Amino acid sequence: MESNKEGKRAPFTFIWAIVNCTDLSIFNRLQSPVFAVDLMENTKWHLIIWKDNDLIVCCLHREKEDDGPSSIQLEFELSLLASDGSPLIGKKKEKKFAKGGYFIFSWFAKLDDVFLGRKAQFLPKDTLTVRCQMWRTGTEISNADLYFARTLMGMERWFFMWDVKEFSELQLGDFRTYILRPNFKGASPLTLVLSLEEGDEGNDICIAAERGFGIKSYYGISGEISLVDDQERVVHFKSVKTFSNSCNEIVFEFKQFCSRDKLMSKKDTILPNDVLSLRCEFEIDVGPVSSQVESYTHLSPSDIETNMAEMDQACFQNSDKPSTSCCPLKTALKSLYEDETLSDIILQAAGRTIQIIDLLKGLLNSPVWGYIISRIPTALSVLPPGGVVSGGSKQQCVYSMWQFPYEAP
């Protein structure tokens, strides 16, 4: 992690990994944990990153309250890092910071470049990594400090079928609901509301998403609602990508999703058994669920030349390691998987086998598993408990789905 300042290493480096990061995560301003720079007169700082139209904006902000001087002159560099720790984008600036002062790189990166065009480089394992390096102007500092912080975004992905039964009985003023309950503590439930409203050419189907009460102040949501026929073909859909804060009771709304009269005219294929089938896919970001400095390293002059490169790499690689608080369920399932005495079902797929513990065999009869398998009918057949499940043309897909619960993230 060499700097460009006369070829000298930065005396201070702060690495911030944002896990489960999507463009939804930065609809609102996302702030890093506060970090203290003892080598620069005990000043305290934080980073802020957000979206502004098609750009990513990044800011270095000094805390209003710290033990440092009233102002301090610094040169600093903010970068986005690749998976090997090398900078993909970097912006430098020299500035005098008063307490509470800040500097904004308003053209830090292009949004589509980071989240679409070069996503594999910028977002390995859905993690965006920001680095801040600092030099004290006019002062040589022989020691070096290295911080690593992680912010975990509360990201959930939903895929489900919403079957609206007795659709023909729906009248003006009636409504049907479907409630989504995010698993993250403090996240507001989301209620999908389907209603019938009078339109210019008859009655229209309207769909809205309403937020309930929760501690989390905002929602970032993207997704799609599709109308499917009796052959599960999409005949109509609408997409959404939006941001909603606690002031918005309605997260999104499709006022004219489709015409009721048109649906009734094709009820044999679109409304089999008087059921309206909606396929719903959503990605919901409820904001940070944890954010903290996880490691700190101080190196003296004698350590720097021999150890600094290794410490840089070790610190950066922490972003690949899951925080133990992220998913304790997967850790527990992995330990159960490793205890072969608990396995009572063996699956065979893609030329490999995987043992299934008694705790999870109920999945074979679950509606979700049944829905998935109905769409890949050649993937496997199910034998009685203790038997073998063997696959067909899509064995690799099945193997991956069953292996997933046991693997730590």
From TrEMBL:
Domain called MATH: residue spans: 23-130
One Pfam family linked to the record: MATH
Domain of life: Eukaryota
InterPro entries xref list: MATH/TRAF_dom, TRAF-like
Protein name from the UniProt record: TD and POZ domain-containing protein 4
Organism, scientific name: Caerostris darwini
